[in-house]
Design brief:
The complex is a heterodimer of chains A (444) and B (376). With 444 residues, chain A is α+β, with helices and mostly antiparallel strands. Chain A has nine helices and 19 strands. Helix content of chain A is 25%, strand content 31%. In chain A, the strands form three sheets. A ten-stranded mixed sheet of chain A has the order 1-2-3-5-4-15-16-17-19-18. The relative contact order of chain B is 0.16. Classes of the chains: A alpha+beta (444), B alpha/beta (376).
Chain lengths: 444, 376
């Protein structure tokens, strides 16, 4: 079985420009031409270009970039990604809040600015901060035809299932079958055949298929890298009847084997199929999901570690300790809890949050970039803005227990209606805690 | 000063390589997991410790001698090994554990563009050293838990320099008999080096198990690895060795690190070789432990893979990494097998009865807890 090699390097072009409005045409021309060269069609290339224009205008207008801005455009086979990176001046970091409307030169404030507008034009926006450099990445995915061809064979029960790594045509067949037999239990992006084939070709996703030796396709499993140390798997999906437990086990084992020697520390499944073999996983917690007219339901988050847990230290606000003690005790994670609380020390006036949108998953994840005295108000403003943008979106907040200052967000998070749901062991510098906004029981 | 640009300094094969993180020290693990004692069943260490003569050498080592360099090429130990196996001392290289002699072989024979061939589910260090040396590691799936000789030959090409065979294999305990090993050596036929890693050979009591040392004269492309870490209980001192034909070892000497084996390790190994009783006692311990544990596992309907070597692989009805934590909390450390691509298996060292009983007791508690949760 071949191993998954994450982050296969794609082609990239770059540009360095001073952060001034006179260079805006250079930026838009770069964005448009490189997006087209990496295969985005006209409408998608235009969207990415407009988003890039918004971001650069925001940078130039707020004076937030401390020096030249580096733009890099990368072709990821099924998407094109535009990254802005630059050294920041702390005072202006708050300009990178999604909700920012920082005034400059006494001009009137627009109702909405830079990041939020840009986020609507792309499929995914991600902000990362480290070593005094801020990076904003915009991702626009290609558009693919979605028609299902006539005369597809019906899947049959597998007599002697074998697992193999897929070729593009088999992946497209998997996508057709998913659309026909299991559209409600898999992410919508898997239902676009050409896209699924390209997602796997990009190296960001991996997949394994099950079939009778040399015979018809019986099912598959898909996985992808999620964050710093995690892999997320989807499935297993099986189409023939009766659905074989053996085939599901084979698929899960193939998925584990493909990532077992990667740098991933754990694998999770937030969207399990009913055939997920429970004995390969533990349950970390659950997320609230919309159950239509019945209100909201709970979906367990399945997880397995890929290596022996080394134990460690978790920095957490005392308000979070009961939750962590229950989780760590139940799952036997050896963690030393170290309390973090505010004790009157001086702090910065402004907080900064990053917002990562994934429109396909209808999910937004907030992460702390900087702690400041206005955290509660800033958080509430983010919740208000995001809820207005898409009332059905799942709204998450992620803190890293390996970064002590993240713990300070706990009281404002709880006050703003977020609840700790899941601990993702060693998902960042330490364990990650995923808070979900209680009004955000979004769609699956 | 300009910021350090690690990305541009590191070769791509190092950038993409994930460092191995060893377990924390026992005291730290016991503190973290809140257990008062820890049974180490994870590293296939010998519960009897080193042979008495080696223990005596360690006890008597004069502290002032720590200021002196040891023999840079383990002079006396190589002479002893030569005498023991009827070879020339120059046919041996001694290293800081078998891991170091693996590096000697790869560094000596491989360059950019070359590859090594081994199994996908075996001792991982062959693959690691190849990959972080910028080489391709071709991993052939095991067949019925054993090395697949035909599959390995099919993966060979003109850039294949070394084929690694772990005999008996860890973690499965399978082995090639002499006839099969000879067939393989003849099929490779001098096109590449064949390394047979016999780290656990002293535990094997089967009559058809081949003695690699005895085959060296017939097959000049054969290299045999052995260690003092397993049977001889010197894992903490880090000492292992390789043996091969004179020209092959002479070539590997150019890539070997001298002075890497400390004086205590050399002298303890020298003393250990003479103690035949220790080998017999260790075999008995493992034999009895295996029989007892197999019975306990069978009584619980837990599947296991049990072959040669001082270990057994057990399939659990739960994630092995979860079981690891639950067992640690009860003072028992096992080795998870997910990283070996055997998900839900753990490998357990066949140790003293007390430790094995502690393992079974802890395992019962873990499985009962799990059953209770599922039932509830």
């Amino acid at each position: 079985m071949n191993e998954t090699r994450f982050f296969r390097p794609g082609q990239e072009v770059s540009l360095v420009v001073p952060p001034g409005l006179p260079f805006l045409p250079v930026v838009t021309a770069f964005a448009e031409k490189s997006a087209g060269s990496f295969g985005l069609a006209g409408p998608e290339a235009l969207s990415l270009t407009l988003a890039a224009e918004e971001i650069f205008s925001h940078l130039a207008g707020t004076g937030a970039a401390g020096e030249d801005v580096r733009l890099a455009c990368r072709g990821g086979i099924y998407y094109v990604e535009m990254r802005f990176s630059f050294q920041t001046r702390f005072f202006d970091m708050r300009a990178f809040n999604l909700t920012s409307s920082v005034a400059c030169d006494g001009e009137d404030l627009p109702a909405e600015t830079g990041l939020l507008i840009a986020s609507r034009m792309v499929d995914r926006i991600r902000v990362h901060y480290g070593d005094n450099r801020l990076e904003i990445a915009l991702r626009k995915e290609k558009n693919y035809p979605e028609a299902v061809p006539e005369g597809l064979p019906d899947p049959r029960p597998l007599a002697a299932p074998v697992v193999r790594m897929p070729d593009p045509e088999s992946l497209k067949l998997l996508s057709y079958f998913l659309k026909r037999h299991a559209p409600e239990i898999c992410p919508a992006r898997f239902l676009v055949p050409g896209k699924l084939a390209d997602m796997v070709a990009s190296g960001e996703y991996g997949a394994a298929l099950v079939e009778d030796a040399g015979g018809p396709l019986g099912g598959g499993i898909v996985w992808r890298r999620e964050g710093a140390g995690l892999v997320e798997c989807f499935g297993p999906y099986l189409f023939g009847r009766p659905a074989g437990e053996e085939a599901a086990v084979l698929l899960v084992e193939a998925c584990i084997a493909a990532v077992a020697k990667s740098d991933a520390v754990g694998m999770m499944s937030r969207y399990p199929s009913p055939l997920l073999p429970e004995e390969y996983f533990e349950i970390l917690g659950s997320m609230a999901v919309s159950a239509g007219d019945a209100g909201t339901g709970e979906v367990p988050v399945h997880y397995r570690q890929l290596r022996e847990d080394a134990g460690g230290v978790s920095w957490a606000h005392p308000l979070l300790h009961p939750f962590l003690k229950e989780v760590y005790g139940r799952l036997s994670f050896a963690r030393e809890l170290r309390p973090v609380r505010e004790e009157g020390e001086a702090g910065h006036p402004f907080s900064v949050l990053s917002a990562e949108f994934d429109h396909a998953m209808r999910q937004a994840i907030l992460r702390p970039l900087w702690w400041g005295g206005d955290a509660a108000a800033n958080l509430e403003e983010h919740v208000r803005t995001l809820s207005r943008e898409d009332p059905g979106t799942v709204l998450l907040f992620e803190i890293d227990l390996g970064r002590p200052w993240h713990a300070r967000f706990t009281p404002p998070l709880l006050d703003a209606g977020f609840r700790p749901r899941v601990v993702l062991p060693a998902g960042g510098r330490g364990d990650l805690v995923l808070f979900q906004h209680e009004a955000g029981g979004g769609p699956r | 000063m300009s910021p350090l640009s690690l990305e541009s300094l590191l070769p791509s094969y190092i950038r993409g390589f994930e460092a191995y993180v060893p377990s924390r020290p026992d005291a730290e693990l016991m503190r973290l997991y809140g257990c008062r004692r820890l049974y180490r069943l994870n590293n296939n260490e010998n519960a009897l410790g080193p042979p008495p003569a080696a223990q005596e050498v360690i006890r008597r080592f004069s502290p002032p001698r720590a200021a002196l360099y040891p023999s840079g090429d383990s002079f006396h130990l190589r002479r002893k090994l030569a005498e023991r196996f009827g070879k020339d001392p120059e046919q041996f290289l001694v290293g800081n554990g078998a891991n170091e002699v693996i590096a000697f072989a790869i560094k000596a024979f491989c360059e950019a563009g070359d590859n090594i061939v081994t199994a996908d589910r075996t001792f991982a260090v062959y693959e690691w050293i190849a990959v972080f040396s910028g080489l391709e590691a071709r991993l052939v799936p095991l067949r019925k838990h054993g090395f697949d000789d035909r599959g390995m030959l099919e993966r060979m090409d003109d850039r294949t320099k070394i084929l690694f065979v772990c005999n008996p294999n860890t973690p499965t305990g399978t082995y090639w008999d002499e006839e099969r090993l000879r067939r393989f050596l003849e099929a490779v036929d001098g096109r590449a080096i064949v390394v047979v890693d016999e780290a656990y050979c002293e535990y094997v009591e089967r009559g058809d198990y081949p003695d690699g040392m005895a085959l060296l004269d017939e097959y000049p492309h054969l290299v045999v690895f052995r260690t003092f870490s397993k049977m001889y209980g010197l894992a903490g001192l880090r000492i292992g060795y390789l043996a091969g034909s004179l020209p092959v070892v002479e070539a590997m000497r150019r890539a070997c690190i001298v002075y890497s084996v400390n004086a205590v390790a050399q002298e303890a190994a020298l003393a250990a070789l003479d103690d035949g009783n220790h080998v017999l006692a260790s075999r008995r311990l493992v034999r009895e432990g295996r029989a007892w544990l197999e019975g306990e596992l069978a009584a619980r309907n837990l599947p296991f893979v049990s072959g040669e070597g001082n270990y057994i692989m057990i399939r659990l009805p739960m994630s092995d990494t979860l079981a690891y934590r639950k067992l640690m909390a009860r003072g028992v450390m096992v080795r998870t097998m997910t990283g070996f691509r055997f998900p839900n298996f753990v490998r357990v060292t066949l140790s003293a009865r007390e430790a094995l009983e502690a393992f079974v007791t802890a395992l019962d508690a873990v499985l009962e807890e799990r059953a209770g949760k599922r039932g509830g």
